[in-house]
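Why predict the complex rather than its parts? Because the way molecules touch one another can change local conformation, and only a joint prediction can capture that. The input here totals 723 residues.
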Amino acid sequence: MRMNQVRIATIIAAVLGLTLPGVALAQGQPAEVQPPPPTQPGNDDQLVVDVTGGQRAALPIAVPYMPTPAEAETPAGGTGTLGRQVAEIVAADLRNSGLFTPIGPSGLPNVSYPQVSAPDYGAFSATGAQNLIQGFVQANPDGRLTVGCYVYDVAGQSQLARQGFVVSPRDWRRAAHRCADSIFSRLTGEGGYFDTRIVYVSETGPARRRIKRLAIMDYDGANHRFLTNGQWTVLTPRFAPNQQTITYMTYENERPRVMLYTLDSGQSRPLIQTPNMTFAPRYSPDSRYIIFSMAVNGNTDVYRVAVAGGTPQRLTNSPGIDTGGSYSPDGSRIVFESDRGGSQQLYVMDADGSNQRRISFGGGGYGTPVWSPRGDLIAFTKTGGFRIGVMAPDGSSERILTGGSFAEGPTWAPNGRAVMFTRGASQGQLWYVDVASGATRRVPTPLGGSDPAWSPLRD
Amino acid sequence: MVREEAAGLYASLTGHVLLLAALTYGVLLLPKPPLASPEPMEVSFVDEVSLVSASPTPQAVPAPSAAPQLGPVEEAAPSPAPVAAPTPAPPRPALTLRPATPQKPPDARDRRRPEESRQGRAQQSRGARLADLNLDGLGRDTPPSRANQAPGAVMNAQAAANIAQAITRQVQPCADRQVYPGPGAERIVTSLALSLNPDGSLRGRPRMTGQRGVDDENRRYAQRVADLAINAFVSCSPLRGLPRELYDVPRGWSNFTMNYRLPA
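Output of the joint prediction:
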């Protein structure tokens, strides 16, 4: 009789497993349904329902204008006006990521200051938004601004996060970006990248007399300014992780060499004094070293030198061109490109130059590798067709992120989620792509642009 | 008695005696029916009960008494004080641009979650009705009486499957609206403990009891997937059409577990 009971239970379980996919019972459940974790109490005597659902789409999110508790004039404008502008920047940041579909700020119900912490969920549920962003802008007695930022779950009618930022009036845009970063982080699980800057090469003029200047701007194109006057062509600018200096290559007096630019002083100096051609610089994660390429007697290798100065240490020694070095985020390894095998391919070595091994084996060439801040991927330019792609540090899982027109020169967002690059061979533009979703967005620049380098999150 | 009457009486008695004798003789001549011999019956002893009991609960909670009491009438609970308008307090000033957590607005408003507040209001109004009717002895926390259940209501495997299917069908549209946060998030399975009222509404906010499938690659999405799981259920709450008689039975739908995951 006991065997009969067991057999009946097994039959019921098998029938349920065949006819009710996604539905499992706590008792007699089919083998393919994993048991709940042992920490769950009472599951043996409870009904268990399995639900699988979701979509790969942008998240609808309501961003109404942000009120002020008291209208006050500041050097950046009235707090009421700033509240509207902050909301617009937050919505734009979220839209730029490609992961959100902001609703508003225009067209949404006005939010009063008391409602900032007690939302009228019903007013926003009709918009279809799953989340709601509210905030306020307040002038403080010390002359600074406070921007409050709240994240709500509309259906759950609960607060998910809140943060406040105190800034000088001239940094009000940064407060908006920080607000957007906190929202992005809470709703995606990733770090943000909106409070960042881009240094790049601004280009203008005909191809044979192109003027190339270093320029810096916020990630969204705001606060743009030039760092060099265009007298000499510049290439490959890179941010120091501590954001105090920028290294780049210049053709000053027709002599290619690596320079260091100090942001506070606006002064440049050569990285090292050498008659040899130096190029392709990049910082170590601790900002103390720079790896670069140097051509000596017709052979180009990767070298390392302290930012403070000293004798360069040679890391590669193969015949051919070894260049484009980029550190792993822990500083233990370096990825670089080399034509030592007959074609341009990617190689990885330890930080001291040992254990060099090839990681790219696909058709066509590979260049300009950049290690992700997360350490999990290496972005590159696939030179056959000029596409931006990523692969694991061991060379596996290669995939191409961009299609269509010419693209090269990737740089990672500080969260390792997005890659910015140059699009267009003649008149370059700056674009970035979300690595997970493939969503792309153009970064506005006043002139043509190339060679972008994304800064870390600002302090 | 005349002679003719005596003769008649004599004849009648004689006839009755003869009839009785004839009947007795006839009965004795009938064949005897065979005695039914009992079939042997196999009896076995078990030490486990069946999967579920099919008999009505022998000691059901008695139905609440509706008879009026003679005691004094209690006052209904007072209505809540007027809600003060919330005022968000500004974050603490910082010398540099660093996140400053805004202080919680100092208000006298009931800060419980909305569903808790709704529940509280429901209980409060219920309390008022009870006071009006003077039904002493019917506590606010009295569980639903099982005496109201249909006799023999059991959550057998088929019933459980049907209810699970009904719940899945109602939650699915809201689950489908949840947005995939990033690579590897589809490997995370979030388990929620859900408590429902008999009308299908939530009795308290869903509580995450565990997650599995979390690894180094997708750990950053774990909290977000928990959010999505809760949102999927809450957005389609309250549930409709679940059988009331299977609400408060063993493995009934008053308390159950929902495992949520994103599609691969």
